[in-house]
Write a structure and sequence with these properties.
309 residues, 8-stranded mixed β-sheet, 9 helices, 47% helix, Esterase
């Protein structure tokens, strides 16, 4: 009986000590902010906005529409005053600039990759991003969409006649080394550019292209017209996530199969056999639509710009 009593008292003591320890810990953690409050207030007051180095933002007009444009210069741009640089033009500006700037910072700064000017084309100012990109990046009108579609032709004209001349006038660029990069609907838009004006860019990095849009209208155009196009000289990199297929995609889109079909269409062109149209397809393991672009970006640009000397 006494042993049982001692055991019970022991359990009570242990429980009390554990509770005391928890309360003491909570009180101490509660007191820490008050002790450091003034110091943290000073730190917060001295905070500065973080900017991407060597990057400026502009506004360019397309008639009544204003678009934001971000331009990042290479590390040695000012010192190497006679050199002309390749330019990488990107859609979905705010997203793509942060991804591509971060991914290329080390390889470009360490000369593992040829340095290039990054140009990120944003959405129409004053509009929601979705409405601007859906309208501007889609090459055909699909009446089933609530938002406007089918103005890729106009947006391509804006890039060709306004964005690229502005960049070429303001900076030292190698006009023979223009690269297009787009993801999702931006990848669809890039495929449209390749079909309509393939010589506008010498390189294409197409991430997860939304070839399903409008019942695969653009893919059908490639099937019908691409082999009849004259000789092409370009490099085309296509990246797609392994999981961009049912049941992981919206509306059961077969994006992996579409990308593979697109790659095979490009392969069938005579320029591929002649070696002037160079292709690469990367299926990214374990990546879905939300994850694939950063891998597509760095692999695609490494394929294009990796130094071999």
């Amino acid at each position: 009986m006494m042993n049982t009593l001692y055991h019970f008292v022991g359990l009570l003591c242990c429980g009390y000590l554990s509770l005391y320890s928890l309360v003491a810990s909570a009180e101490n953690s509660h007191n820490v902010p008050s002790q450091l409050a003034s110091q943290w207030a000073e730190v917060y007051a001295s905070a500065a906005v973080v900017n991407i180095p060597r990057t400026r933002q502009f506004t360019l007009k397309d008639d009544s529409r204003d678009y934001q444009l971000m331009v990042k210069l290479p590390k040695n741009y000012q010192q190497n005053s006679t050199h002309h640089y390749p330019v990488i033009y990107m859609t979905d500006g705010m997203y793509s600039m942060q991804v591509v700037s971060g991914a290329t910072r080390f390889p470009m700064n360490s000369n593992a990759m040829h340095q290039a000017i990054l140009v990120a084309i944003g959405y129409q100012k004053g509009s929601k991003g979705a409405s601007s990109r859906i309208r501007d990046y889609t090459p055909s009108h699909d009446s089933s969409w609530k938002l406007n579609t089918g103005e890729a032709k106009r947006h391509l004209r804006f890039i060709r006649d306004t964005v690229m001349p502005f960049v070429e006038h303001q900076y030292r660029v190698d006009t023979q080394q223009n690269t297009f990069m787009g993801n999702s609907l931006g990848g669809l838009f890039g495929a449209y550019v390749l079909l309509e004006q393939p010589a506008l860019f010498s390189n294409y990095v197409l991430g997860s292209p939304s070839l399903w849009f409008d019942n695969k209208h653009l893919l059908q155009r490639f099937i019908q017209n691409f082999n009849q196009m004259p000789a092409l000289s370009a490099k085309v990199f296509i990246g797609i996530g392994e999981l961009e297929r049912p049941p992981y995609t919206h509306n059961k889109h077969q994006m992996v199969a579409d990308a593979q079909a697109f790659y095979q269409i490009l392969q069938s062109h005579p320029s591929t056999h002649a070696g002037t149209l160079q292709l690469k397809l990367l299926v990214i393991p374990e990546a879905d639509h939300s994850m694939a672009f950063p891998t597509t970006a760095i692999h695609g640009l490494s394929w294009l710009f990796k130094r071999t000397d």
